[in-house]
Amino acid sequence: MDITSKLTLLFGTLLSLVLFTSAQRCSNYTFPNNQVFSSCTDLPSLQAQLHWNYIASTRSIHLAYKANQAPAGWIAWAINPTGTGMVGSQALVAFQNSEGSMTAYPTPVTSSSPSMQTGTLSFKVSNISATYDNNEMTIFAIVGPLENGTTVNHVWQAGNSVSNGIPQAHALSGPNIQSMGRINFLA
C-alpha cells in the first residue's frame, strides 16, 4: 500500500470517528426552546431523530422531527396510514423560505411525483412550526387523534433544494430510499 492510500484510509477513518462521536443521540438532546419530550428515537437514516409526547386523552402526538440539513434544503416527516412507503403518506414539510424564515405545512403525498404544496391530511395537524439552528431543521406539531392506534408506518425525507417555495425531488438512492419504518408511540 502506497503512502497516498494509507493517508486516504487514515483520513477516512478519522472522519468517520469524528462524525460518529459528534452525532448527538436523541436521549441527550436539549431543545433550544426548552421543550421537553418524554420519548425519542434516533432514526436509522438521514441523520434524523423523532421526539414525542403521547397525549392519551386526545390520542394525539406532540412531536419534533429533527434532521441535519443545509439552509437551502428541506425536511419532511410523515405517517402513512395505508402503506409502508412514500405514496399515500401524510407529510409535514419544512424549509427556509426566501426571506430566511422557516416555513412549515402539511401536504399529502399522493404520487411518486407529489406537488409538495400545502394540503389537507387525513388526520388533524395543529401548532405546526419549524426552526433552523446549527445546520439542523426541526418540525414541531401536534398530530391526531390517531384513528388506527398508536403504532404507525412512518417515513422521513430530506432534499437539497427548494424552488419558488416548493421542495424539489430528493435523491432516489441510498439513505433516502431507506427512510421508512414502523413506530409505536406508546413504546
Describe the structure.
Residues 1-23 form the signal peptide. This protein is mainly β. It has one helix at 3-22, and strands at 39-42, 48-55, 60-68, 74-80, 90-96, 102-108, 125-133, 136-143, 151-159, 162-163, 166-167, 180-184. The strands form 3 sheets. Strands 1-2-3-8-7 form a 5-stranded antiparallel beta sheet, with no helix packed on it. A 5-stranded antiparallel beta sheet has the order 6-5-4-9-12, with no helix packed on it. β1 (39-42) and β2 (48-55) form a beta hairpin. The radius of gyration is 18 Å and the shape is globular.
Observed structural traits:
187 residues; transport; 5-stranded antiparallel sheet; DOMON domain-containing protein; electron transport; mainly beta; DOMON_domain; AIR12_DOMON
What layout of secondary structure does this protein have?
Blueprint: H1 3-22, E1 39-42, E2 48-55, E3 60-68, E4 74-80, E5 90-96, E6 102-108, E7 125-133, E8 136-143, E9 151-159, E10 162-163, E11 166-167, E12 180-184
**How large is the radius of gyration?**
18 Å
Order of helices and strands: HEEEEEEEEEEEE
> What is the helix content?
10-25%
CATH class: Mainly Beta
CATH third-tier fold name: Immunoglobulin-like
- SS class: mainly beta
Q: Any guess at the CATH architecture? A: Sandwich
What is the domain total for the residues?
1
Give me a quick take on this structure.
By secondary structure, the protein is mostly beta strands. It is 11% helix and 41% strand. The protein has one helix and twelve strands, in the order αββββββββββββ.
